[in-house]
Amino acid sequence: MKIYTKTGDKGQTGLIGGRVAKDDIRVEVYGTVDELNSFIGKAMTELDEATFADILNDLHAIQHELFDCGGDLANVMKEPQFKLTEAPITVLEERIDVLVDEAPPLEKFILPGGSPAAATLHIARTITRRAERQMVSLVATTEGVNDVVLRYLNRLSDYFFAAARVVNFRAGVEDIEYARGGKVFHTKKGE
Question: N or C of the chain: less Cβ packing under 10 Å?
Answer without folding.
Answer: N
